[in-house]
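Please, structure for the following, as tokens.
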Amino acid sequence: MNNKKIKFYLFYILLSVIIFGAISGIVDNILDNIYLKRESAFAISNKITLSTVSKAGTDCHYSFFLMGKWYAGYTSLPLHGDGTKYFIKFYPPNPNRNKATEIIATPEDIKNLPPDGYKKLPHQ
């Protein structure tokens, strides 16, 4: 094979991977919304870290502890990384499907958090 063909195939493979990644990310986001509309519960974020800054804003990564396991997610919501705790909406059969909210958890909410999360927000 000559160099041009190799470069073409590498470019085609790289482009395919990028397109597939974008499509799967979009599909995954749509599925998260569908599952969270079906059934959801609420956990409380443990840690918020601010990362990538782009034209769209700052991405926030969050983690939460539920039923003896750690879960994580990210959002473009303007969450604060100053120790503020937020409610995280999750799908109980698979907490990896989750979404941050801008609803701040009170110390009482945090203290009374059930191991499997709140079935509904405690103050609504």
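Residues 3-38 form the longest helix (36 residues). Helices lie at 3-38, 107-111.
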